[in-house]
Amino acid sequence: MAHRLQLLPQPALPEVPGPVGGTREVMRSLRRLIAADNMTQKENAKVEAQLAIARAMMRAGRP
User: Fold this and answer.
1) Per residue in 21-38, pLDDT tens?
2) Domain regions of the chain by residue span
3) How sure is the predictor about 43, in pLDDT bands with cuts at 50, 70 and 90?
């Protein structure tokens, strides 16, 4: 005997106003912020490495 799945009617979700510009624009802005943060972190890592090298050279007595 085959069973059939019966879908019951669901109440409609209330309309919730989104942010100005809509969700798509918010997601795009978030992606840009994340990309900028990633670039900043990469640049900071380079600077930290350069500082570490410079400090090591100073400790070794090399200008």
Assistant:
1) 678 888 999 999 999 999
2) 22-63
3) very high
